[in-house]
Specification:
2 copies of one chain form a homodimer.
Chain A: H1 3-10, H2 14-22, E1 29-30, E2 36-37, H3 41-54, H4 59-70, H5 80-117
Antiparallel strand pairs in A: 1-2
Helix pairs in contact in A: 3-4
Chain A binds a DNA duplex through helix 2.
Protein name (chains A, B): MerR family transcriptional regulator
Keywords (chains A, B): Coiled coil, DNA-binding, Transcription, Transcription regulation
Pfam family, one (chains A, B): MerR_1
Chain lengths: 120, 120
Amino acid sequence: MLIGELADRAGTSPRTLRYYEKHGLIRPRRDANGYRQYDDAELRVVHEIRTLLADGFGVDDIKPFVACLRAGNSAGHVCPESAVVLRRRLAEVDELLGRLTDVRERLRDQLKEIRCQMTP
Amino acid sequence: MLIGELADRAGTSPRTLRYYEKHGLIRPRRDANGYRQYDDAELRVVHEIRTLLADGFGVDDIKPFVACLRAGNSAGHVCPESAVVLRRRLAEVDELLGRLTDVRERLRDQLKEIRCQMTP
DNA sequence: CCTTGCCCTGACGCCGATGTCAGGGCTTAC
DNA sequence: GTAAGCCCTGACATCGGCGTCAGGGCAAGG
């Protein structure tokens, strides 16, 4: 499978796949003409990468997940190296949720104040 | 008051104040030598700006709040123009909170799976 | 006079994932 | 042979708030 086909199947672009490769997430073989050649298993890997990115992980955080998948595990998150990253990200998300919740409270208070303001 | 003093009092930097000015949030007078001259009321404005930034508003969103303060109101958020922005931001925050909550749930599920995995 | 310390403007750097353009090669079909 | 459609590498652009450096002016004190 060439890069364009994998990109289509994964719902992304060749540019993006080359970016993942540059960051060590995927390592395709090369045809004689230099074209990247991917086997079907890579589709799974790319999906894993994109899911994790969508969940706010950085490309560097994702490496252990990919390694875990490549090691033959049923999912990228079942290895202890992945768990470390998962816990770190969970802490970040909790932190963010806390701050955002505070922000929301302030916003609602301010909006409430506007509505009350017209009945002095 | 010169820019350095205002920056110190507001807990920020001259660079930052010039940035706000470039984006139309503050308009200091100029001394004969070209130095920016601020009166004490600007400290209040800068605080308002920084609070809103910390709550995730963009510089352009902040203009109505500043205008509202300048118009003599007790707070920047009591004007209808501010309310429009407040509601928009509240919607964004709610959206974000929803997505982050989903992410957190997935993270916790995956961590749970790791712990269970060692007792097959 | 010279240093110190403030001020000025303008411009580039950052971060992260991706788009996009430039310039060039291979393959396949007409 | 040539046009179409894929592939390659490399490099610049994006967004936003700010750091930081470059190059230069003004004021006050030794």
